[in-house]
Amino acid sequence: MTVAASWRKVARFTGIYGPGRTLFKAAGRLRLGLAMPTLRRATPDIGVIGCGQFAFATIGYFLRRHGRRIAACYDIDVATQASFARSLGVKAQPRSAEALLAHEGLRTVYITSNHASHTPYALQSLARGIDTYIEKPVAVSQAQLAALIAAQRRSKARVFAGYNRPFAGAIRALREQMTIDPTKGITLQCFVSGHVIAPDHWYRRPEEGTRVCGNIGHWLDLLVHLLAWRGLPDRLEIALTVADAAEPDDNLAIGISSDRGDLFSLVLSSRTEPFEGINETIHIQHHGTIAKIDDFRHLTIWQGERLMRRRFWPKDVGHGGAIGQPFGGAMQRDWDEVVRSTQLMLHIADMVRSGTRQSVFSFRESAARLAHEIEAL
Ligand SMILES: NC(=O)c1ccc[n+]([C@@H]2O[C@H](COP(=O)([O-])OP(=O)(O)OC[C@H]3O[C@@H](n4cnc5c(N)ncnc54)[C@H](O)[C@@H]3O)[C@@H](O)[C@H]2O)c1
């Protein structure tokens, strides 16, 4: 990217995210060791595993907003760990996750490493009784999910998931406005302009669970969250269309209908890199409500002749609310919803991997299978 384009990006980001978040985003990319504003007086009691861009620009930024300070960080890459620690004023830089979790006074750990490592790290931190925030996905296989639930049940610590869209201002405002009719279906449609991911990007490694676990899980989780407002259906009919079978998770469409009259469609299109990052348009209909969410910056709700418009500045995709859960944020996510959405995500990831184009998914049957697997551990 040219210098002029970089400055243009900073200007656009500032218009979307505000100056503070833009500073963290730019510093997270550049890693020049620039000291970010941190809260010197707060007690450092947070650990971070995986010090990449999301940990720096989003977790680092919002922890500060929540009045929290990071005590220790760990990354398999020493330079990444050191630049994160220098910029965010983190004193301890242990050279293993075990050493980080043994750090005295650690109360909460944020796991923001590669997808396949989320569950194994969460098992360790829950065993130590440390509150554990797991970035999405919380698991990349059914076996991991079973182990995670078993560990959570054994632990006195709490577990949180990084699925942020249910915390978005637009979704919460819609929930306040919407009247739910338990006999009626819900329609959700999402068009997502996703990032172009390099052929050798770590998201693509077979063990990391495909872009379904890496990206699409977000909108499947939003679907499960919206359906839970009314009560989940049981059976889903799922159809998958991919633009190119050689790259099945880059440009694809997922269509879902349910036994309670619900309808979901998602298109992820990653043919070109969106200049300001991922961009999404979401339409929702239920009972007497029609809603449109434009990139989590604008919400329009129609209810008969009533028209309501809201603007969200800075753009609010729900990261602040999700990251604040361990500290008694205004909204706490129902862990069971996260488990259900993870099961649906794993089912669709399997469809993408196996080239299956149509299938039926049952929440009830998948919950029974999971319970069986947990029992067998
Ligand atoms: N909720 C959201 O909107 C959102 C957005 C972007 C990324 N994420 C999530 O954040 C996490 C990190 O993604 P990112 O974009 O920062 O990627 P990234 O590649 O910038 O960072 C990942 C970091 O993890 C480190 N790492 C890799 N394997 C590790 C291991 N086994 N132990 C410890 N550290 C390890 C890498 O060295 C790297 O620094 C992922 O789970 C991703 O899905 C969430």
Strand content: 15-25%
For the record, the CATH class of the largest domain is Alpha Beta
Q: Round the mean pLDDT to the nearest integer and report it.
A: 97
Structural class: alpha/beta
Tertiary shape: globular
Task: List the quaternary state of the chains.
Answer: single chain
Bound molecules: nicotinamide-adenine-dinucleotide
CATH superfamily of the largest domain: Dihydrodipicolinate Reductase, domain 2
Tell me the radius of gyration.
20 Å
Roughly how much helix do the residues carry, as a percent range?
25-40%
Domains, number: 2
H/E topology pattern: HHEHEHHEHEHEHEHEEEEEEEHHEH
Number of strands: 14
For the record, give the distance between the C-alpha atoms at the N and C termini, rounded to a whole number.
50 Å
Overall CATH architecture of the largest domain:
2-Layer Sandwich
CATH topology of the largest domain: Dihydrodipicolinate Reductase, domain 2
Notable characteristics:
377 residues, alpha/beta, Rossmann fold, Dihydrodipicolinate Reductase, domain 2, five-stranded parallel sheet, globular, binds nicotinamide-adenine-dinucleotide
